[in-house]
Amino acid sequence: MTAILTDDTTAPQPPQGAEPSDALTTEPPAPSTADDPTSVSEATPTTKESVEEPQNALTKKFTDAEWNALKEFRTLIPDAFAEAFPDQADARTTPIKLWGITINPTQFDDARVSVVLMKFLRARHLNPTEASSMLVSTLRWRDIFKPEETLEEEFPKEVFGELGYVFGKDKDGRPVTYNLYGANKDLKAVFGDIQRFLRWRVSLMERGIQLIDFETIDQMVQIHDYEGVTLSSRDANSKNAANEATSIFTGHYPEFLYKKFFVNVPGLMTWIFWIFKPLLSSQTVAKMSVVGSGPHTIGKAVLPYIDTHELPERYGGKAKGFQSTV
Q1: Pairing relation of β-strands 175-180 and 220-225?
Q2: Burial level of 20, CB count in 10 A (0-12/13-18/19+)?
Q3: Whole-prediction pTM value?
Q4: Whose CB has fewer CB within 10 Å in the chain, the N or C terminal residue?
């Protein structure tokens, strides 16, 4: 089967205990508009003259450049909401919920909102205008696709039951998701209905995000297992599904990847990765590790990030199994 890659642009941070190198700055939220929550003219995003900027462990790592970009980005949020929901007259002042975090376009008094917005900024090289466009696109897509509903949908276990798992955490508390591309060799069953596959794949992503608090962690670790996969393990539907999934994750799930391990990769596929490596950014390559086969080899690469009791035995750990996501 085909890997679903996420094109993140931020290099992974060092394991827990490393010294944070980003400077801390502060930036307070806007005056309250509670007396007239629908007033656009009074819905001014944060200014330095009001109360202290809300902080958490992640916002304290923002750089000066990131804070400056975030301040500008906040001023664009009301217009972004209006553009995303053109049929909603009060969209400029109506809060929305994204990945479990409520974003109020007129008041930024939750540090977790700053973390969510920073993901869009980092994905667009701290360009507030481009980040706003990405946010608009994401909100429109979510309004149509309704990814939160995938969490309640049932997918046939005989098809998807062994393809994906959310299991354990890394040493800093990030959730770990597993994709086992060779677990079901019936390509027609998996990819015959592309939209069903995409909804299952998005559900896997959303389940991982449910374990992210946006206070101490805002990313996840992914392990992509290619055991049993060959170059012939592709058909037209699987290619189309891979392309659509890649478009979804690169366009609407910014900066969620901390580290990705490709394990049990066939030798020829390893060479293909290295051929395409020059086409990838150094930040993206820094997040990826192509690992050989077998518990010892995989464990040697993965255990510095994931505790042995959190890693399944098949990958060199001591955990007995997976927690299925379907």
Answers
A1: parallel
A2: exposed
A3: 0.81
A4: C
- Can you tell me the distance from the alpha carbon of 145 to that of 82, in angstroms, rounded to the nearest whole number? 19
Lowest mean pLDDT among 36-45, 49-58, 317-326: 36-45
In whole angstroms, give the CA distance from residue 198 to residue 149: 13
Amino acid identity of 234? R
Nearest to 265 by CA among 238, 289, 243: 289
Q: Are strands 96-98 and 101-103 parallel, antiparallel or unpaired?
A: antiparallel
The single-letter DSSP state of residue 193 is S
98: its two tokens? 């994204």
Indicate the Cα dihedral angle 142, 148, 153, 157, nearest 10°: 100
Q: Please check the confidence at residue 37 and state whether its pLDDT lies above 50.
A: no
**What contacts 24+ positions apart, CB below 8 Å, involve 297-300?**
298/261, 298/263, 298/264
* Cβ count near 242 (within 10 Å): 20
| Residue 81 and residue 66 in contact, taking contact as beta carbons nearer than 8 Å | no
The span from the CA of 266 to the CA of 227, in Å, is 8
